[in-house]
Amino acid sequence: MNLTKESFQQTVTGDGIVLVDWWAEWCAPCRSFAPVFERASEQHPDMVFAKVDTEAEERLSAIAGISSIPTLMVFRDGVMVYSEPGALPAASLEKVITAVEELDMDEVRAKLGA
């Protein structure tokens, strides 16, 4: 799924887990991360895997504070719970996914409210 300025907010604020890959065509690390991200999407059909082309969506990228690509953001139940630049190997991406699945969202929301 490709996200735009118009579809981003609605996609990331829903229930469940949404992974967003911020990338650009000219970015070699982005191109090396793309198949890893694609395989993970096939292994986790219950999650939303989305991409934002930072060249096509410059304003959205600026609003999101993207300064390095690729950047992976993960949202769970409308809350951003992970954001890191860099191309992850498959095993590291799986660790991130597992950690997000295991989060106690009541605890996360309590910490955000504090």
From TrEMBL:
InterPro entries: Thioredoxin, Thioredoxin-like_sf, Thioredoxin_domain. Pfam families: Thioredoxin. PANTHER family: GEO12009P1 (PTHR45663), THIOREDOXIN 2 (PTHR45663:SF40). This is Thioredoxin. Keywords: Disulfide bond, Electron transport, Redox-active center, Transport. Residues 1-102 form the Thioredoxin domain. NCBIfam families: thioredoxin. Belongs to the thioredoxin family.
